[in-house]
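in:
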């Protein structure tokens, strides 16, 4: 049937689709403790579907932890519609009206990393009488990224400020709007590889607890957060690794570790590499067949961190590879911009495509 235009929620002219509808295909580390209100924690986590009709609205509930969350919406692979969720509120957001009649592709994802807490999806509103349809199969390729604000896409949309410090970026004091995990090197690379991606990027993250900047003054590191669903220290919960087993795991750590460590100190260097191996041993226990790729990023840092990561990778015999970006540690100070993320994604994709059989593990 043809669907009628419905835009007035208050008049009851739209059909409500609950968040547990089987045509919603979710991706990312998401909590389904309440299947009618799944909670999103990490950038790029979201869902895909197809919907009938000429309009769509989304109902979210923001949890009022940290900064307000940003959500990105793309219809028919068009330009992004960004939504700033109202803190501590359950709100309906009208995303689009006046679309062409027919069926449309929808991708909804979290733009910001976990620094802004979590939010829940309660459902979608379509034109009266319209429904969702199956968006098609998931990609058979699966890739997971662990890292810091670069992996999370912080400040990626500060376009035109390449090679300039973050303090030079002129904004309206809402720097969260410049972050978008959709445009992180991780998400770009995943799309180029046609792979489903979990992007576990946390701003300020270092390897060890007590270093970096993640989660306030009493900082925690990747050794603590890597296996968490909710990575915020005051409310950490465990992730169920059976829900997503990647063929490829990219770990990009070493940018923030220099805050309280001198990697050129021999004892520090030895200890840090031992801790990195401990992390890899833990990850390997969860992913016995996956290929790991260790790297840093273009974000400005001491070359010693690249050398340490390379040494860790080369000493292992269990499908652990190393990649050094051509401009590793030589990018924009502060945070990388979109052109630099695209540069990293292109290099990483070329490297992965050279690895024979990397996607054959099921």
């Amino acid at each position: 049937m043809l669907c009628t235009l419905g835009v007035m929620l208050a008049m009851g002219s739209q059909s409500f689709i609950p968040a547990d509808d089987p045509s919603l295909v979710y991706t990312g580390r998401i909590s389904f403790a309440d299947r009618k209100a799944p909670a999103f924690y990490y950038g790029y986590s979201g869902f895909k579907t197809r919907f009938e009709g000429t309009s769509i609205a989304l109902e979210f509930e923001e949890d009022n932890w940290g900064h307000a969350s940003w959500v990105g919406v793309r219809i028919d692979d068009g330009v992004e519609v960004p939504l700033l969720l109202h803190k501590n509120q359950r709100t309906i957001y009208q995303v689009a009206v006046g679309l062409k009649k027919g069926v449309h592709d929808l991708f909804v994802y979290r733009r910001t990393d976990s620094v802004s807490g979590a939010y829940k999806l309660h459902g979608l509103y379509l034109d009266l009488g319209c429904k969702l349809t199956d968006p098609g199969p998931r990609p058979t390729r699966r890739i997971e990224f662990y890292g810091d604000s670069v992996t999370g896409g912080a400040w990626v949309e500060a376009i035109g400020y390449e090679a300039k410090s973050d303090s030079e970026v002129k904004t309206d004091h809402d720097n969260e709007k410049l972050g978008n995990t959709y445009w992180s090197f991780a998400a770009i690379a995943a799309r180029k590889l046609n792979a489903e991606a979990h992007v576990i990027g946390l701003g300020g993250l270092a390897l060890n607890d007590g270093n970096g900047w993640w989660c306030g003054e009493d900082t925690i590191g990747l050794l603590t957060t890597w296996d968490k669903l909710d990575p915020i220290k005051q409310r950490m919960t465990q992730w169920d690794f059976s829900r997503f087993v990647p063929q490829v795991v990219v770990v990009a750590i070493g940018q923030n570790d220099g805050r309280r460590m001198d990697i050129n100190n021999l004892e520090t260097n030895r200890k840090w590499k031992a801790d990195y191996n401990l992390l890899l041993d833990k990850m390997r226990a969860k992913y016995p067949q996956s290929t790991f790729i260790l790297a840093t990023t273009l974000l400005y840092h001491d070359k010693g961190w690249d050398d340490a990561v390379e040494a860790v990778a080369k000493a292992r015999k269990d499908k652990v590879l190393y990649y050094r970006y051509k401009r590793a540690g030589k990018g924009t100070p502060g945070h990388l911009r979109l052109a630099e993320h695209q540069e990293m994604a292109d290099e990483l994709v070329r490297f992965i495509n050279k690895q024979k059989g990397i996607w054959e593990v099921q």
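note: The chain has six helices and 17 strands.
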